[in-house]
Amino acid sequence: MQLNMLKGKIHRVTVTEARLDYVGSITIDSDLLDAAGILEYEKVAVVNVNNGQRLETYTIAGEPGSGVICLNGAAAHFFDPGDTAIIMCYCQMDAEEAKTHKPKVVFVDEKNHATRVTNYEKHGQIA
């Protein structure tokens, strides 16, 4: 049996852009993708803390160090610049792998630069 587990999370970024006239996806500063272990074109879930909207899309790597978080295409309807978002990526693993798996969690400052990379422990506690 394969389980869907949290692989990486970028916690409480600030949306910098929302571009309706684009094919789709979310552009994320490549430094943040790397820190969270998320690949370009990988599927992510994005949650808007301000309005509760949740969607799935794929990532596009943005300029490293830019702090860019841009919702593109239809996703732009659900996010405005300045909104706070959480970006989560999942992976599949068997039950044995899941017992010891610890996802990467990236915390950011007000300019969307990583300030801390850690792992979740039991019940959402931060290591």
TrEMBL record:
Enzyme type, top EC level: lyase
Needed co-factor(s): pyruvate
Cell membrane as UniProt keyword: no
GO molecular function, one term: aspartate 1-decarboxylase activity
Family in the record: Belongs to the PanD family.
Quaternary structure annotation from Swiss-Prot or TrEMBL: Heterooctamer of four alpha and four beta subunits.
Designated name of the protein: Aspartate 1-decarboxylase
Species annotation: Bifidobacterium vansinderenii
